[in-house]
Amino acid sequence: MNFKFLLMTLLLPAMLIPTAVNSATVTVKINQKSYSFTERPRLDEVLAPQALSQQWYWPASKLFVLNNQPALQRQQIIQQLQTLTGQADDNLLPALAALQNELSGWQLGQRIPIRIDYDLARANIALNPRFEAGEYLLLLTERPAEVHFFGALRQSVTMEHRGAAAVRDYLNDLALLPDADKEQVTIIQPDGVVLKAGVQSWNKQHIELMPGAMVYVPFAQGWFSADFSKLNQQIPALAVHRMY
Q1: Are residues 130 and 164 in the same domain?
Q2: What is the DSSP code string of the chain?
Q3: 234 lies in the same domain as 181
Q4: Predicted model pTM
């Protein structure tokens, strides 16, 4: 399955969905500094105070509305993992425990699926939407140096990003569980794109990880096929909304 998260930028103006605050005010916290606008600003206006202050890696920039919807989704997933923990064999227990710890440590917000790039916003009105009134969190970061693997592993693993390497090239350094799906993984790119990549000789694809990507190693279909099939979809979808 290939979820083209950023194709939703075709609906940019409609996607800036705010929290309920004073209808005349837009407040955007960019990293640790807050900015207020009495008129609805465009993206380039919001980015302008910080855009040139550092060498930002725009593909990893993220815009959020702060609400509890992703946290509620996480709670449901953790409850499913806890239920499976009481039913699964011993081989699965370390991975289920590690996955619960992984998800519990995430700070979550409702990510707004727009492309954030200062130069593109200034050059193309279609990539320069207006903000609706509300409160937002905009996270800017320099180029990350690592990628992160989690899922059907004994523990989550953070590895150095390798330029031009396909995702399958990383897997030799991971201790996959016997119950891991060894045919494909799910990539959550930092720009919000979620896609599956084949990693065996018969289905391999040369899909490179962007710096800062997360990779979910799915559970294979087995005794709890329906449960794991659901989790294999829900967990990458939740990862899109991870702030930190």
Answers
A1: no
A2: -EE-GGGGGGGHHHH----S--TT-EEEEETTEEEEESS--BHHHHHHHHHTTS-B-GGG-EEEE--SHHHHHHHHHHHHHHHHHTTS-TTTHHHHHHHHHHHHT--B-EE------HHHHHH-GGG-PBPPSEEEEEE--BPP-EEEEEESBSS-EEEE--TT-BTHHHHTTS-B-TTB-SSEEEEE-TTS-EEEEE-STTT----BPPTT-EEEEPBPSSTTHHHHHHHHHHHHHHHTTB--
A3: yes
A4: 0.88
- Please indicate, yes or no, if residue 151 is contained in any of the structural domains: yes
How far is residue 215's CA from residue 218's CA, in Å, rounded to a whole number?
Answer: 9
Judge whether 177 lies within some domain: yes
Q: How many domains does the chain have?
A: 2
Average pLDDT over residues 135-149: 98
Is residue 44 domain-shared with residue 99, that is, in the same domain?
Answer: no
Q: What is the pLDDT of residues 224-236, one digit of tens each?
A: 778 899 999 999 9
